[in-house]
Amino acid sequence: xxxxxxxxxxxxxxxxxxxxxxxxxxxxxxxxxxxxxxxxxxxxxxxxxxxxxxxxxxxxxxxxxxxxxxxxxxxxxxxxxxxxxxxxxxxxxxxxxxxxxxxxxxxxxxxxxxxxxxxxxxxxxxxxxxxxxxxxxx
Length: 138
Known about the structure:
Number of strands: 10
Low-confidence stretches: none
Number of domains: 2
Helix content: under 10%
CATH architecture of the largest domain: Single Sheet
Order of helices and strands: EEEEEEEEEE
Distance between the termini: 66 Å
Number of helices: 0
Strand content: over 45%
Shape: elongated
Mean pLDDT: 89
CATH class of the largest domain: Mainly Beta
Largest sheet: 3 strands, antiparallel
Radius of gyration: 25 Å
């Protein structure tokens, strides 16, 4: 005896994370601006049974029941002026001397961020010039 029935499965759609820079926050300070929320997807399958034993499963349709909401985290870039300068001499603009520096709006995790374009005039120690053309954060 062959029977079929529709089965609904619900799966989680993980939220994405985005980092933005904020020059009103102290450098390195992190604030979640928008909390991330997972979404859900409904999957409808047609399941076939022969003598009560499942023999097939085919996806009939799927839909996003609830869209995920990305988490947005702001990272501060406000730098207090320092008497000694505090800028790396390998770059034409002030790139702070830090354990790591990334381009604003990129996927890096700081703790320091800079906006370009910035000419690399020495060694690109923070690897800000992704295409090695002498201009960083473009």
